[in-house]
Design a protein that fits this description.
The protein has helices at residues 16-32, 46-52, 68-75, 94-103, 117-120, 134-144, 164-168, 191-204, 217-221, 238-246, 257-264, 283-286, 298-301, 312-315, 319-331, and strands at residues 7-11, 37-42, 59-63, 80-84, 104-110, 123-125, 175-179, 210-213, 231-233, 250-254, 269-272, 293-295. The chain is of the alpha/beta class.
Length: 332
C-alpha cells in the first residue's frame, strides 16, 4: 500500500479462534506500520477477549453492538485508515457493515450474497465455499492491502502465571489437558461420550500422568461428580489456561478456542473437529504437524451437517482410539 496507515480496525466474531486470527492479521500489518493504532471489534464477551490479549498492550479491544455506549466507543475512535470485516459462513450483517463503512477510509471485506457490497466496500476479496484455511483468508486481506505476510505462522503470548501448577498440584510436563466443551451441541460430544473419553484417556495414560479437565464449573458438573483418581479439575482464567496448556505434555480437545491456543503455542495436540470445522485444522492453517492428530467422521454427515443435536460426525469417532493416540504421542 503506497500511503502510510495510522489506524486499523478489524471486526471479529466474539470467539477465541476468530479473535486470534484477527490478531494474526493485525500483527502482520504492524510489521509494516509499527506506529499505527490497532483495534479488534467484537460484539460480546468483551472481558474474555480482553483477557485473551492481556500480553498485547498495542491491541485495543472495542465493543461493537447495538448498545448506545458501544456505538460511542466505536465511533469515538474517529475515522480509521483501514477497516476489515471478517469472512463468515453466511452474510456479515448489514448493520455492522454500514458502521464499518462510516468509520473507514478504506473498507476491505469478503464476498457474500449481499447485493449492497459493491456500494459499501473499497476492496472485496472473493470467498468461495468454506474449505480455505482461515490463515490464508487473512493473507488474502493482506494482499488486498499490498502488505506482505511477514509472519507465516500464528503465535501466542500470554502473561506468565508462575504459581498455577503448584496451586493445582501439577508438575511441568507430567499432565495432559483435556477440553471437552465447545459451547454448542452441534459441534460437540454428548455427555455420555465425554465421560467415555475421560475414562478412556485416564486408562490409556501412565498412572503418574494426570488428566487435567478444563472448562467452567457448570460444564464439568454436567458430567457428574465421580472421576478417575488421576483426573484433576481445573477452573482457570484464559491467561491461566494458556499457562496450563504451555506446560502440559499434550492437549486433547474439541475444536474450540482452547485448542487454537494450543496450536498457536505449537503444543502436541489431538483435536476432535466436526465436519464444518475441518478447514481450521488443515496443514495450511498452522503448518505441518499441528495438530498432531485430527479425528472426525465427515462421511457420516455427507456434506449435510445436522445442527439439531450433538455432532454426529464426532459421535461416530472411536474415542478409545483417540485416547490410545494421545498415549502414543506422549511416548514419542
Amino acid at each position: 500500500m503506497s500511503r502510510t496507515i495510522s489506524s486499523i480496525l478489524t471486526f471479529r466474531a466474539s470467539s477465541i479462534g476468530d479473535s486470534l486470527m484477527g490478531k494474526y492479521l493485525l500483527e502482520n500489518i504492524r510489521v509494516a506500520f509499527p506506529d499505527a493504532r490497532f483495534a479488534l471489534a467484537v460484539s460480546s464477551r468483551i472481558a474474555m477477549i480482553r483477557d485473551l490479549f492481556a500480553a498485547y498492550p498495542w491491541l485495543e479491544i472495542v465493543e461493537a453492538n447495538k448498545r448506545p455506549g458501544s456505538l460511542s466507543s466505536l465511533f469515538g475512535r474517529g475515522q480509521q485508515d483501514v477497516v476489515i470485516t471478517p469472512y463468515t459462513g453466511g452474510v456479515f450483517p448489514l448493520a455492522p457493515k454500514i458502521a464499518a463503512r462510516l468509520i473507514a477510509r478504506t473498507l476491505v471485506g469478503y464476498t457474500d450474497s449481499s447485493r449492497l457490497n459493491r456500494f459499501l466496500y473499497t476492496k472485496l476479496i472473493p470467498l468461495v465455499g468454506r474449505a480455505r484455511a482461515p490463515r490464508l483468508l487473512e493473507t488474502d486481506a493482506l494482499r488486498a492491502l499490498d502488505i506482505p505476510a511477514a509472519i507465516e505462522r500464528p503465535t501466542f503470548a500470554y502473561v506468565p502465571q508462575p504459581h498455577l501448577l503448584e496451586r493445582l498440584g501439577l508438575s511441568d510436563g507430567k499432565y495432559v489437558v483435556l477440553h471437552l466443551f465447545s459451547g454448542a451441541d452441534a459441534r460437540g460430544l454428548s455427555p455420555e461420550n465425554r465421560r467415555t473419553l475421560i475414562h478412556s484417556l485416564s486408562e490409556a495414560l501412565p498412572r503418574d500422568v494426570a488428566v487435567v479437565l478444563t472448562g467452567s464449573d457448570a460444564e464439568r458438573e454436567s458430567l457428574g461428580k465421580e472421576f478417575p483418581s488421576n483426573v484433576v479439575l481445573a477452573s482457570t482464567s484464559l491467561q491461566e489456561l494458556a499457562e496450563l496448556i504451555n506446560h502440559s505434555a499434550l492437549m486433547v480437545s474439541l475444536d474450540t478456542g482452547a485448542a487454537h491456543i494450543a496450536a498457536h503455542l505449537r503444543k502436541p495436540l489431538v483435536v476432535l473437529a466436526s465436519c464444518v470445522g475441518m478447514q481450521w485444522w488443515s496443514p495450511e492453517m498452522y503448518g505441518a504437524g499441528v495438530p498432531s492428530a485430527l479425528f472426525t467422521r465427515p462421511d457420516i454427515c455427507k456434506g449435510r451437517h445436522d445442527y439439531s443435536s450433538f455432532a454426529k460426525c464426532l459421535e461416530a469417532v472411536d474415542l478409545r482410539e483417540v485416547a490410545q493416540t494421545a498415549a502414543r504421542l506422549l511416548h514419542n
